C-alpha cells in the first residue's frame, strides 16, 4: 500500500489550540491525553450531561490547558451553541489551530434482508431509520461542526501556517476495500463523510487544510474490545499524520501507519 509523506511540517505544542469533537472515551479521550502531554491547549467536547470521570480528572490535573465543552453533533442548535460558548470563554475568537473530528457511531449492523449471507449469521434487516440515525452522526455531524467552528480557526499567513481540520472516518467506507458486504449504515455513512470532507477541502482551500484519518481497528467500546491495536498506538500515529499536514498538502486519506487508503 502506498505510503504518505510524513515529514513533520506543523509540530503540535504549546502554541497549538486543538478542538477534539467526541472525546469522552476511547480514541477521542486518548487524543486529549496525548495532546495535553504535548502541552497543547485542548478543547474537549462531550455529549452527555457531564464529561465523565476520566475527563474530570484530566481537568483537575491540567487546569486551564483543558476546556470542556458540551456538544451533541446530532443537534444543530447544540453545535452552534457550543461554538458561541467557546467564543465567550475566550472573549472572542479562540483562533483554533486544529479541529479533530472524532465523533461517530457504528449503529446496528443491519443485514440486507435478515438472512445469513457471505458467511455472516442472520441479523435484522437494515431499516430506513437505522440508516438515517447513523448518517446524522457520521455524515451530517462533521459538516455541522465545520460550519460552526471553521470561523473560529486562526487566519493563516502562509500555506505553512494553515489551521487543520482532520476528520476521522473508516476504511469500512472505502468502495475499493469492500470485499465482504454488510454494515450498510456504517459503510455508507463513512463513504458519504469522505465526499463531505473533499468538498470542505475544496471550499476551504484558502482557509484550512482538510484531510481524512483512518484510526485502524482499535480496541474500544465501539468494537467491544475486539480491535487489533490499542488507542494509544492509533492516536500517536494519527498525530504524526496531523503534524505532516499543512496548506500545501494534497487531499488524502491516511491511516495511523501512514498508509494511504484507496477510495
UniProtKB/TrEMBL annotation:
It holds the Pfam family adh_short. GO terms for molecular function: oxidoreductase activity, acting on the CH-OH group of donors, NAD or NADP as acceptor. It comes from the Eukaryota. SUPFAM superfamilies: NAD(P)-binding Rossmann-fold domains. InterPro entries: NAD(P)-bd_dom_sf, SDR_enzymes, SDR_fam. This is NAD(P)-binding protein. It comes from Guillardia theta (strain CCMP2712).
Amino acid at each position: 500500500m502506498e505510503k504518505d509523506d510524513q515529514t513533520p511540517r506543523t509540530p503540535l505544542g504549546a502554541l497549538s489550540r486543538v478542538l477534539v469533537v467526541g472525546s469522552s472515551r476511547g480514541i477521542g479521550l486518548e487524543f486529549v491525553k496525548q495532546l495535553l502531554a504535548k502541552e497543547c491547549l485542548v478543547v474537549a467536547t462531550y455529549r452527555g450531561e457531564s464529561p465523565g470521570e476520566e475527563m474530570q480528572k484530566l481537568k483537575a490535573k491540567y487546569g486551564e490547558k483543558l476546556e470542556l465543552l458540551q456538544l451533541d453533533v446530532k443537534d444543530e442548535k447544540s453545535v452552534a451553541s457550543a461554538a458561541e460558548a467557546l467564543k465567550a470563554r475566550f472573549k472572542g475568537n479562540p483562533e483554533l489551530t486544529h479541529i479533530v473530528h472524532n465523533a461517530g457511531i457504528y449503529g446496528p449492523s443491519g443485514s440486507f434482508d435478515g438472512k445469513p449471507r457471505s458467511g455472516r449469521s442472520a441479523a435484522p434487516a437494515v431499516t430506513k431509520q437505522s440508516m438515517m440515525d447513523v448518517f446524522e452522526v457520521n455524515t451530517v455531524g462533521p459538516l455541522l461542526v465545520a460550519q460552526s467552528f471553521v470561523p473560529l480557526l486562526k487566519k493563516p499567513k502562509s500555506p505553512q501556517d494553515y489551521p487543520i481540520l482532520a476528520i476521522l472516518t473508516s476504511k469500512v467506507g472505502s468502495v475499493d476495500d469492500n470485499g465482504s458486504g454488510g454494515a450498510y449504515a456504517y459503510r455508507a455513512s463513512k463513504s458519504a463523510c469522505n465526499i463531505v470532507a473533499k468538498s470542505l477541502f475544496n471550499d476551504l482551500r484558502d482557509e484550512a487544510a482538510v484531510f481524512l484519518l483512518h484510526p485502524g481497528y482499535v480496541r474500544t467500546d465501539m468494537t467491544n474490545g475486539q480491535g487489533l491495536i490499542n488507542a494509544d498506538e492509533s492516536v500517536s500515529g494519527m498525530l504524526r499524520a496531523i503534524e505532516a499536514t499543512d496548506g500545501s498538502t494534497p487531499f488524502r486519506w491516511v491511516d495511523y501507519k501512514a498508509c494511504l487508503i484507496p477510495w
